[in-house]
Design goal:
Chain lengths: 91, 455
């Protein structure tokens, strides 16, 4: 089952954030469909739209792995199913 | 392609992480219509089996939804059919064993409260209703998770004043039996006018007779989000602009509730019932309905203008929410519990808010006289007078009203009581010293109002 999800990364800018996140995603067969990234007053903010193959790696496993990455790079990393944003922000 | 802007994603994260947006409750309603038996013990056994089986996956499913969608679900709860409606076969005086079975079932399912130790007596008290009401004090004193509710009035029936008086005595007896814990039993007992059948919130949740076997009802929340939106407006924004801002926010909060309700119902394989649009506060700082009213412009909740602000808030929440779901139900009005709202507690302590103002506020929002600690020596007739006043507002205005009063044994006005957790803590409020005894002792029924004749 393919699931679309939104990945948000927020925290102090440093070298290698995108690389570490992208590596973890690739290892979990998560496809990145879109990336938007900005830095405002040294705060790194990245939003990704990704597609997850839940038959290969369950949602929970991917969240757990990203939590480990978040700890390593000291940033807030959130993975949420895309529906929540569609529901809340679109009629 | 990202159809949602990073700003919208950031807004959602801010709502959850800093403004306390959560789903206040996912409540599984379970019919226990087939659990009737010849004894209360046997009925309890059947109820336990039925409820634990139905609710087996409730908590893990809700936990998965909150993880995957990033929206916390604060409470997972269960409601059952009003016990008195099923207990007719028991022909016993004591239904406490049924309450004990409910408590065990709630514990096994991992939920904090189970509602439905209830009776509807707006017109008359049947034998099973009588047994249930008689059992309430002991049931609430010997259980942790059981909630009880009794409907004593409706627009169609009027007010059963005998039942009101009886419930006032029941409240006092419950307070006495749980005196060691600041009379906490009364925090789990609510007396209603125009009770609804699909309320997901405690203490008044029941699974009504018009429902299917099992149903998921969801109660939204988000006072912190609404307050933040109002505070972000310029100080001179007019009230139309305030209403617009609340409506837009309410839409988003409701959509989160709608999504969770659909998903929980789908994963549990039961019907989706309703989304309750009540703004429900918690004792956490910033998660307060009183602070919304203060952000709108009254210096302290309870100041003149408070009822106006609350009316505007309540109406705007519904208008925004109505676009967000086609399944509005439950109580769907702002809650103003005193002990569960830090802003309300502060307003009482500062002398800005009293019982009479809360009664006025009841007329324009959801259940009004909620989680109010009063002196332990308040006469039962006075408690009955307070309950019947709340009922009168509900009956005449064709809306739900209720009273959850805690006559804290051994406490006087100005003392403090604390129940912990979501029930919070509160100052004991002053009650009128003028007697209601003659009116209450007349008994009988206040006839249904002319406005009830709609056909």
């Amino acid at each position: 089952m393919k699931t679309r999800a939104v990945l948000s990364v927020l925290g102090a800018d440093r070298v290698g954030i995108v690389a570490m996140i992208a590596t973890a995603l690739a290892e979990l067969s998560v496809n990145i469909e879109d990336i938007r990234q900005t830095i405002l007053s040294d705060v790194f903010s990245m939003t990704m739209l990704v597609t997850i193959d839940e038959d290969l790696h369950p949602f929970e496993e991917i969240q757990a792995r990203l939590a480990t990455v978040a700890e390593e790079i000291g940033m807030q990393v959130t993975l949420q199913r895309e529906d929540v944003f569609r529901f809340m922000h679109r009629i | 392609m990202l159809h949602i802007s990073p700003e919208e994603i950031a807004e959602t994260l801010l709502m959850v992480h800093q403004q306390h947006l959560d789903i206040r409750t996912v409540t599984l309603g379970v019919s226990i219509g087939d659990c009737g038996a010849d004894s209360a013990d046997e009925m309890g056994r059947r109820l336990y089996e039925k409820v634990t089986r139905a609710a087996e996956r409730l908590v893990p499913v809700c936990e998965a939804i909150e993880r995957e969608y990033g929206i916390p679900i604060r409470n997972k709860r269960i409601s059952v059919s009003p016990v008195a409606a099923v207990a007719g076969r028991c022909a016993c005086d004591d239904l406490t064993p049924v309450a004990l079975a409910m408590d065990r079932a709630a514990e096994a399912a991992g939920v904090d409260f189970i509602g439905g130790f209830s009776a509807l007596v707006q017109k008359g008290v049947g034998a099973a209703d009588d047994a249930l009401i008689r059992s309430i004090p002991m049931a609430l004193a010997t259980t942790q998770r059981v909630c009880s509710s009794v409907n004593v009035a409706s627009t169609r029936a009027g007010i059963n004043m005998d039942a009101v008086a009886r419930m006032a005595h029941t409240v006092k007896e419950t307070a006495t039996l749980t005196a060691e814990d600041d009379s906490i039993g009364c925090a789990k007992l609510v007396v209603f006018a125009n009770m609804v059948e699909d309320n997901p919130f405690m203490a008044g949740a029941i699974h009504g007779p018009g429902e299917s076997d099992a149903v998921i009802n969801v109660g939204i929340s988000g006072p912190g989000v609404v307050r933040a939106i109002i505070e972000a407006l310029p100080d001179d924004a007019d009230l139309t602009a305030v209403a617009e801002a609340i409506k837009a926010t309410s839409f988003k909060i409701t959509r989160a509730g709608e999504l969770v309700a659909r998903e929980a119902a789908r994963r549990l394989g039961v019907a989706m019932g309703i989304v309750d649009l009540s703004l429900a506060p918690t004792p956490a700082e910033g998660d307060s309905v009183a602070e919304i009213l203060e952000a709108m412009g009254v210096e302290r909740c309870g100041a003149p203008g408070t009822t106006t602000a609350l009316a505007l808030l309540n109406d705007a929440v519904k208008k925004g929410g109505a676009m967000g779901t086609s399944s509005i139900g439950g109580l769907s009005g702002a809650f103003i519990p005193v002990s569960e709202d830090a802003g309300m507690v502060r307003a009482v302590e500062d002398g800005a808010l009293n019982l009479e103002k809360l009664e006025a506020m009841t007329a324009v929002c959801s259940v009004g006289l909620d989680m109010i600690a009063i002196p332990g020596d308040t006469p039962a007739e006075t408690i009955a007078g307070i309950i019947s006043d709340a009922c009168a507002i509900g009956v005449i205005n064709n809306k739900t009203t209720a009273a959850r009063l805690i006559p804290a044994v051994g406490k006087i006005a100005g003392d403090h009581v604390s129940w912990g957790g979501l029930l919070g803590a509160a100052p004991v409020m002053d009650v009128s010293r003028w007697s209601s005894a003659k009116l209450i002792n007349r008994g009988g029924r206040m006839p249904a109002p002319l406005g009830s004749l709609r056909n």
